[in-house]
Protein: Dolichol-phosphate mannosyltransferase
Amino acid sequence: IRPDRVRARLRGTIGELPVRTTPRQTIVVPTFNERENIATLLERLTAALPAGETEIVFVDDSTDDTPEVIRQVAEACPIPVTVHHRANGAGGLGGAVVEGMRLARGEWIVVMDADLQHPPEIVPDLVAAGARDGADLVVGSRYAGGGSRGGLSGGYRRIVSGGSTVVTKMLFRNSLSRVSDPMSGLFAIRASSLGVEELRPLGYKILLELVVRNRPGRIVEVPYSFQPRHAGESKSSMAEGVRFLKHLGMLRFGAQRSRMLMFGLIGVSGLLPNQAALWALNHLAGVHYLPAAVLANMVAVGWNFALTDTLLYRSRRSHRSFSGRFSRFFLLGNADLLLRIPLLALLVGGAHLGVLWANLVTLMISFVARFLISDKVIYRA
Ligand code: GDD
Ligand code: MN
Structure:
């Protein structure tokens, strides 16, 4: 059944009369190479939900034939199913979910994974709980009474998951006061409370994005037990972990301030090679502290460039060639010696501060200036 065609036909027969086309619920399912899970997922959703009041929207970023498998299985499925295959995968899982929310026509939008870690049978309970309690958001929770995270395999994953939940709840104490499982990928939201344009999804934690930026009214939770994966393997990775930290920074501090935070962390990490090289040259090799500071600075600039270019501005690298970026960064990192060397001479020669302490003070002063020039000039967006 193609709802768009049905609607077109209805419009043809009854002219411009308004036709009720709003389903009770749209199930949005993000998929990345999940071909083996589709049949079981649709089977169990069909058994759990009234076909006439439901639609299912898959948003797919697969590199395999998952979209074809979905279309094929959907032919025999009484619930209308659409597949939207994205070309660029922007925003990862979260970007896919938001895309699905744009396409959804249901009164309620239910988001769930394709791998059956979220039991399809719980979907009607989510919507019913939201309607009964007049809620905008219903979170499927592994931590609420009666829920469990049995399917979270391995001690390592449990620790990472539990730890990031605690840290996240601390960072967003107010928004998350009534959410025990902000990392959940299973939830239902009342479509009328959704502000899709405000969302800036980045990676896995779309529920967190939604709660923090959309500030839904009443939030309730429904416990469920997280199941083992049906088939295939998890798509989360180390890179996804880094993306999550970036997402946390963006949500909590905003884009510019989290870049400055990262620039600062990289800068602080550069203190180590800087001080070590200064100590080796000045103390061990007996080089005068001023030329030693100049050489130590170059070591640190190389270190900072490597980290800044790969971790912080990876996505902006294409604006300029490698040699263009490196030469500007190197020039900036050494230009600050014009400020730092006289200052250093003043602090050591005049104020009789120790060489390493004086070096540290001058580094702090040049930090803000270098951030602004990097952010606004070298890696201008
Ligand atoms: N479209 C799209 N694009 N879908 C994706 C992408 C992507 O880049 N990455 C993953 N998915 C889909 C998968 O195909 C699956 O249907 C769902 O998103 C969840 O991916 P998994 O790889 O199975 O995630 P997980 O089991 O490690 O994590 C899930 O459970 C966590 C709770 O422990 C997610 O729901 C997390 O958000 C949740 O925190
Ligand atoms: Mn999974």
